[in-house]
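Morning. Coffee machine broken again, so started the prediction first thing and wrote up yesterday's gels while waiting. Chain of 113 residues, entered below exactly as on the submission form.
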Amino acid sequence: MRGWLAVALTLICTAVFGHGSEQWISNAKLVDPVSKGFCCGPTDCSVLAPGSVERVQGGYKVNTGWWKDYDPFFVAWARALPFSPDGHYHICITSDEALIPTIRCFIVPPSAV
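Came back before lunch.
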């Protein structure tokens, strides 16, 4: 059953979210190193504005500007994916039915790890 769920999520992410500037995240099939969940694609992922990420002890403090009740987010170093091809920080966030955000992936420039 879990195998079918993973296949279904992959197809949904690839088929439905396969457009836009963050397409490279879906194409690369990036996976969060901790949760092992797919980062997915452009409707979940966005580039972060310069200055919105600060390295702090144990990880990163991230101000998205979109989730004011939840900013800043803390992302542990173990969750940082050093695969940003453009030198910018990218974050993939989804929310549940109650609109509580969950970080799916945090993609950093290789030099930021």
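Strands lie at 45-47, 53-56, 59-62, 73-76, 80-81, 90-95, 101-107. Going to sketch it on the whiteboard this afternoon.
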